[in-house]
Amino acid sequence: MENQFIQLGIIYLLGIVVPGPSLSLIIKNGMLYSRSAGLMASFGIMAGIAIQAGIVLIGLSFIEKDSAFFKALNIFCSLYLFY
Question: Which of 44, 53, 61, 76 has a Cα at 20 to 30 A from 24?
Fold first, then answer.
């Protein structure tokens, strides 16, 4: 279980480091408005990623405890992919 948390943390860290639309938003806000607006945008993006990581970790711990739920989720996701 602890190994999964470390792997997920590394994945989220790589997702933060890779430039993308969030970096464009931070640069735009910093250049158009002020440095503090760019910092506020970066803190907002970091908070959103932290909330998302927390939700994922809670979901992973719930799925591991209930194997019947995990099997049902696998079937549902497989049917969705076939659709």
Answer: 53
Q: Which of 53, 55, 29 is nearest to 40 (CA)?
A: 29
pTM score: 0.60
Q: How many other C-beta atoms can be found within 10 angstroms of the C-beta atom of residue 29?
A: 19
Helix (H) or strand (E) holding 4: helix 2-17
C-beta separation of 46 from 13 below 8 A: no
Q: Are the CB atoms for 73 and 63 separated by under 8 Å?
A: yes
Backbone angles phi, psi at 62, to 5 degrees: -70, -40
